[in-house]
Design goal:
Radius of gyration of chain A: 27 Å
Largest sheet of chain A: 6 strands, antiparallel
Number of helices of chain A: 21
Distance between the termini of chain B: 79 Å
Low-confidence stretches of chain B: 1-82
Oligomer: heterodimer
Shape of chain B: elongated
Radius of gyration of chain B: 29 Å
Order of helices and strands of chain B: HHHHHHHHH
Distance between the termini of chain A: 49 Å
Low-confidence stretches of chain A: 644-660
Chain lengths: 660, 218
């Protein structure tokens, strides 16, 4: 009953989306307020029905209703409640339902909070949202229905893949999807602007908060996925340049560029056409990511060819939306007037450079991810493009980006004074040189690049602080007045500072982890001691333990430093009988930003356990950086100027304009 | 998929892998059917895996099926976590470091995007041992790579060589950068010189004086 209700709710949502796709467009064309306002109510109703459908699937999973295929294949009655819930999106059908739920959520948010948008623009934006939604409802209903029943219900489910039974993975997909799908709003705004043939600074002001919101979620989602891979996969890697990771990195790069170009558009009314194009590209890359991940084309071109229904369907969606929006762009973009001239050395110029480098980085990831697929389809030859390629091509692009980063916010609009800015950055430069010297002296004989990279990171961090220090006058004014001045600074200035500093901090983490990582690989018997980076790790013993739906072998380590006992660490290996599979649960011990990491390998006949112990210096900074960046984004989002629905005073005027 | 099956139907590998499996099976049962804890199993990525499982019958339907599914597991699963086993490590730390470096550039061909340094699949182990064998025999890094390419094809390299068919792959990033730069330059020239915009010109000395006066009187 619940399954059928959920299915029916989804069909109703599709019907609503079809109405929302058409009537508001006609309304905008005929300037009919009644038709235009249909968009708002259908968007809200759609959200309601999709939420009902999603709730139905959650209920089925929680109650372990194994008469539903999706629950049978991905759940188990003994699974802890939290993983019963997260198992909903731990599979293809459920995660697509989550995708459309979030899409409906964003549509509902625009409907609810976009009252100050010009009526025609809002109607068009919601209509474009409904186009996307309709396509994906159809996809789910036709190829990936999560509510299908089994004729003879089995008594027990097949359990969720154990590596997914983890709290990190519980939160990672919703975060990632909030980012992916959030960019649909910027896309819809861009397409709506192209249809209207009108775009101005106010448009950028409306788009920016949505883009920023999506960007924050995507940043956190990627960082969380990376941390999950780090502790769950058991070999301490945190970024693999896996196509699936690249699929989320590409929209992030394009989205970051979009955020910056939207600033230029809002403040200076320039880069209009480019901003529109970026908005289209960012969401197109999100769609591409969905295609890559969902179609199975990554696993193998042949797998795609043998079961192509889903893949072809998404490919079709991809072609229609990307092709359609780009054609619309080619047709209408010339109608948009360019505005705002600026000199190459200016804030605008710096942001253009940022865009150029980020787009190139995005193109690099794009070609590296898709080239092997393309080559195999065209010639049948197989090549691999992996981490060494990306490290070589992607890294150098970030170098100029990071050097330019502190300069950008200090340059004046329209025409900047590079020499003046360089002078203002003297302190940051000195700090960077000092850092290079210190690190070089400390790690003599080590890698030569590492101290330089750390120096660059320090330059970025100090440069980010520079603006705040100067503008609050903390070095030349009494503390009290400096604090009050600092408080008076726009939140977006603080946001920039945190986001830029976050990049520098992440870079420190990356450099330290890759350069000074130490490891111990060996077989240990109880009583053996391993020495890693000054720590002594003694294997006390190995015990067996039983969990709700798994049994595990736990190794007990005593960790000491210089003879003093510090802590205990208990890495384990879990065996999940329902799927006959096992996972490695690494043990982590944080010391400041550094971590000790133990993961277990196989047990030999004589009772010796293969053990891998890593000491990863400053590794936590790799994820602390993105968290800071997201925090910076949040601060910017809370800036009065940018608050969702900010330009209130003009509301009535704009409403009249639109309805004329 | 075909390519992977192909690797395991080659007699050499089938023999080797089969033998290793038997040894492993007697030693530790848990390894027999371990799933790959690998990023490609993120829920957002489950599509292919889900499909795969639907295609193969459930376990426990006769030993033949078990044997077949085991074989398939070997073909698909990038087994396990961490890779280099204690017994593989070379006595000479310099050579071992070279081996590790090379391992990171070589693909475990039965895995999804894992280097043989990361993968615990039996094939990756074979390749790691092979790399170490070649290094011990005195090969240079380039010669080791050549050897592996001759044996397994270009697919084994995670960083493709610069050749005609990978031209676009290697040249696209710089082309985008340069092309973007040129496009910006042309766009600027078309948009007109900045100097024509009065707002962007510097103040004249006259205007400077007036500005000073206005500021002073404020």
């Amino acid at each position: 009953m619940i399954a059928e209700a959920g299915h029916y709710a989804l069909v109703l949502a599709l019907a609503l989306a079809l109405i929302q796709s058409t009537l508001p467009v006609l309304g905008a064309r005929w300037r009919d307020p009644a038709l235009m306002s249909v968009a708002r109510s259908t968007a809200l109703a759609q959200l309601l029905f999709v939420a009902l459908s999603f709730a139905a699937l959650v209920t089925l999973h929680v109650t372990s209703d194994f008469s539903v295929v999706n629950v049978y294949e991905n759940s188990h009655s003994l699974k802890p409640l939290i993983y019963k819930i997260t198992g909903v999106w731990g599979n293809h059908e459920g995660s697509m339902l989550l995708w459309v739920s979030i899409l409906a959520l964003f549509g509902g948010l625009v409907a609810a909070f976009g009252q100050n948008l010009p009526m025609a623009l809002r109607a068009l934006v919601l209509a474009v949202q409904a186009w996307i939604a309709s396509a994906f409802y159809l996809f789910i209903l036709i190829t990936s229905n999560p509510f299908l029943r089994i004729a003879e219900p089995p008594i027990e489910g097949r359990d969720l893949n154990p590596v997914l039974q983890d709290i990190g993975l519980a939160v990672h997909p919703p975060m990632l999807y909030l980012g992916y799908v959030g960019f649909s709003i910027s896309f819809s705004f861009a397409v709506a602007a192209l249809i209207e043939g009108r775009i101005d600074a106010a448009w950028a002001r409306w788009v920016r908060p949505w883009t920023l919101m999506a960007w924050i979620f995507l940043t956190l989602g990627i960082a969380m996925g990376s941390y999950w891979a780090y502790y769950e996969l058991g070999w301490g890697g945190w970024w693999f340049w896996d196509p699936v990771e690249n699929a989320s990195l590409m929209p992030w790069l394009a989205g970051t560029a979009l955020l910056h170009s939207a600033v230029v558009m809002e403040k200076r009314n320039a880069l209009k056409v480019w901003t529109i194009l970026l908005a289209i590209l960012t969401f197109s890359l999100s769609l591409l990511g969905t295609f890559l991940v969902r179609s199975g084309v990554l696993t193998s071109v042949h797998a795609f060819a043998t079961d192509p229904t889903r893949g072809v369907f998404i490919l079709l969606i991809l072609c229609i939306f990307i092709g359609g929006s780009l054609s619309l762009f080619a047709w209408r973009a010339s109608a948009l007037k360019q505005g705002g001239l600026f000199a190459p050395i200016s804030r605008e110029g710096a942001l253009v450079l940022n865009n150029l480098l980020l787009t190139t980085a995005c193109a690099t990831v794009f070609v590296g991810t898709l080239y092997p697929l393309g080559l195999e389809v065209l010639t049948g030859e197989k090549i691999s493009v992996g981490a060494p390629f990306f490290n070589l091509t992607f890294g150098p692009l970030f170098l100029p980006l990071m050097i330019a980063m502190p300069f950008g916010p200090l340059l004046a609009w329209k025409r900047g004074d590079l020499l003046g800015v360089a002078q203002r950055l003297t302190a940051a430069g000195v700090a960077a040189l000092l850092a290079v010297a210190l690190v070089w002296a400390w790690a003599r004989g080590g890698a030569t690049l590492a101290p330089l990279a750390i120096g660059l990171a320090v330059f970025v961090i100090a440069g980010a602080l520079n603006d705040i220090v100067e503008r609050s006058g903390v070095l030349r004014l009494p503390l009290a007045s400096a604090i009050s001045r600092a408080r008076g600074l726009p939140r977006s200035t603080w946001g920039t500072m945190f986001a830029h500093a976050g990049i520098g901090i992440a870079l420190i983490g990356i450099v330290c982890e890759t350069t000074w990582n130490s490891e111990y690989i060996g077989s240990m018997q109880p009583g053996d001691v391993a020495k890693v980076a000054g720590y002594e790790l003694k294997l006390d013993g190995v015990t067996q333990r039983k969990g709700p739906n798994f049994s595990e072998m736990v190794a007990h380590f005593d960790v000491g430093l210089d003879g003093r006992p510090l802590s205990a660490m208990t890495p384990s290996k879990r065996n999940y009988p329902a799927r006959g599979s096992s996972t490695t649960e690494a043990a982590l011990l944080s010391r400041g930003a550094s971590q000790l990491y133990i993961s277990l390998g196989d047990t030999a006949a004589n009772g010796a356990v293969a053990v891998r112990i890593y000491h990863k210096p400053m590794v936590l900074l790799i994820w602390f950086g993105p968290v800071l960046m997201a925090f910076g984004g949040l601060l910017s989002l809370s800036d009065r100027r940018l608050r969702v629905g900010a330009p209130k005073p003009a509301r009535t005027v704009r409403g009249l304009q639109a309805a004329e | 998929m075909q390519a992977r099956a192909h690797f395991y139907t080659s007699p050499r590998l089938r023999g080797e892998v089969g033998a290793k499996r038997r040894v492993r099976g007697t030693l530790h049962e848990s390894n027999a059917r371990r799933e790959a804890p690998h990023p490609d199993l993120l829920p957002a990525k489950g599509g292919e895996k889900e499909k795969r499982q639907r295609h193969f019958p459930a376990r426990g339907q006769g030993w033949k099926l078990i044997a077949i599914s085991l074989l398939l597991w070997m073909a698909f699963a990038a087994v396990g976590a961490g890779a280099v086993q204690p017994d593989e490590i070379m006595p000479d730390p310099v050579k071992e470091a070279r081996a590790r470096g090379l391992s990171r550039e070589l693909r475990c061909m039965v895995c999804q995007n894992q280097s043989i340094d990361d993968s615990e699949a039996p094939l990756a182990r074979d390749l790691r041992l092979l790399v170490r064998e070649r290094i011990a025999a005195g090969d240079s890094d380039a010669k080791v790579l050549d050897f592996l390419v001759a044996r397994y094809g270009e697919f084994v390299l995670l960083k493709p060589r610069f050749e005609p068919r990978t031209l676009l792959l290697w040249l696209l990033p710089p082309l985008v950068l340069i092309g973007g730069g040129i496009a910006l330059w042309i766009n600027r020239r078309r948009a007109g010189s900045v100097a024509e915009d009065p707002a962007l010109r510097d103040l004249t000395t006259d205007e400077h004086a007036r500005l000073k006066k206005l500021l002073a009187s404020d």
